[in-house]
Amino acid sequence: MPTYNPDLNDLHAWDKDFVWHAFTQMAEYEPLLIERGEGVYLFDTDGNRYIDGSASMWCNVHGHRHPRLDGAITNQLAKVAHTTNLGLSNPTTVHLAQRLADITPRGLEKVFFSSDGSSATEAALKIAFQYWHQSETEGETHPPQSTSHRTKFVSLGEAYHGDTLGAIGVGGVDRFTSIFSPLTFESIRVPGPGMTASMSSTGDGGPRTDDSSRRTTAAATLHELENLFKNQGNEIAALIMEPLVQAAGGILVHPPGFLRAVRELTQRFNILLILDEIAVGFGRTGTMFACEQENVSPDILCLGKGLTAGYLPMAATITTAAIWKQFLGSHKDGRAFYHGHTFGGNPLAAAVALESLALFEEEHILEQLPERIQQLQGHVARIAKLPHVGDTRQCGLVAGIDLVADKDSRRPYPWEDKMGTVACMAARQHGALLRQLGDTVVIMPPLSISSSELADLLHAAESAIRETTQAPAGLPSGSVLS
Ligand SMILES: Cc1ncc(COP(=O)(O)O)c(C=O)c1O
Fold it and tell me: Which among 57, 116, 305 is the best mutation to test ligand 1's pocket, defined by most ligand atoms within 8 Å of the CB?
């Protein structure tokens, strides 16, 4: 075959012709090719520079091309790029598992590696199911005659746990998933406490009609959970939730104490708690893990995205020793966890994950976050005053800004207008890459962002929102901490 160096026009055309982009209407897609990165900046093939305002889909932690992270990968590459973890192991992966057991909340010890967040939650659901099955049939000869009654999962409205069939079974963002409902198992969905009125219609896929979209309070959710556990507790394998903030549902922030109260209920009724920290783990909410803020340790913890500082695909499902023990026995008992992925525990990913954890310690990343979080708070408060901004929500270094047709009533824009998408496209002209969730503009930069870079990002977001909603020129009153 002749060698051929494609020019930019070819690449733009091929991007439309050959690449099927995730969550994208390809008939309307306009290519933007990112060629390289440096710190919080990304550069396109024309040399334009953008601040990575979505941390490359919520996963970049220390910026792009960090010399220590790049070096960790090349060092590992000099040893081996990949070996399987089916029945054998690798020193780097073993080391990472030990470190994760060390830094995650007490009791979490056994690390099951996979390649992405959806696989981590999928594994968590299967582990919970198999755990109960094996607990309840203990002592029976193999294969057991009976099965567990614990076949149901509880999740919160607007939950997002990934896109594989099991994960969407416990998901609550119906516009993404309702079409697949004949293929999935049904979870018991309890309305979450973070819903806002302006979320009732969305940009990309039409209005939400499900019950989970209704506004509720933490007390109502807890009451509903308690009744559910009382009446059906012995049929429930686990409750799965995103702690503190439901990200893909629209940056829906839970009130303080909610997670703790859910944990107490699951303990009281002997129901496993799966916490999905794929979006919020590794410093996003201001602590290494979100659940630390309410002194909660789940039975199963799911990690992904920031685990490798956003460099390589890797995820982890971490359980207690009590769960793990139910999988032990002779091979003749058939109790092993028959589940796995080719690249689970990949040594390159493990190497960069280990180096990222070292950076957290040595560069005091968590200690520097409060200042940045406060700066974000100050500027979001100012954006909140714009005439077409409804609710704004923040948890740590993530914020959601709702665009609404009417500020007082929080009436949404018609979803066909895609105002969130339009605003994020406008932000590109101001040097920022942002990603919307319906009509919610999301600010989620790498944790390493400096004060002046964050100020630039927020100015870009504000300018884009002003232009899109045709807000009058001039600054809304209020202070900006930058
Ligand atoms: C909370 C949560 N869980 C699971 C996932 C799925 O992760 P992945 O896209 O790596 O499969 C995501 C992705 O955004 C997420 O935010």
Answer: 305
